[in-house]
Amino acid sequence: AELDKQNASKEYEAISEKAKQELEEYKVRRVAAFKKSLVELAELQHKHAKTQVHVLKSAIASLKEMSA
């Protein structure tokens, strides 16, 4: 019975260590995915901001033409 207990304890420790490694790998993957999403969001916001600037410049130019 003592031998079974020791074997079970060793198996539990091995499984626990493997689970810790898997959790760490998962954390690394999640951070990488979050970083990628954040970069994509920033790039998209930058693109939209550039478009808005272009629209506003066009509107200002049109207003200047109308007032001239």
Explain what this protein looks like in three dimensions:
The chain has 68 residues and is mostly helical. Helix content is 97%, strand content 0%. It is built from one helix and no strands. The chain is rod-shaped and about 100 Å long. The chain starts with a helix and ends with a helix.
Task: Write a concise synopsis of the structure shown.
This protein is mainly alpha-helical and 68 residues long. The protein has one helix at residues 2-67.
* Helical content class: over 70%
The whole-number mean of residue pLDDT values reads 97
Classification by helices and strands? mainly alpha
Evaluate the radius of gyration: 29 Å
Total DSSP E strands = 0
Principal-axes geometry comes out as rod-shaped
Terminal CA distance:
99 Å
Low-pLDDT segments, ≥5 res: none
Report the biggest beta sheet as strand number plus sense, adding barrel if it closes: none
Proportion of strand residues: under 5%
H and E order: H
Number of helices: 1
Protein name: Sorting nexin/Vps5-like C-terminal domain-containing protein
Organism: Trichinella nativa
Give the tags.
0% strand; 1 helix; 68 residues; mainly alpha; single chain
What are the SSEs and their pairings?
Blueprint: H1 2-67
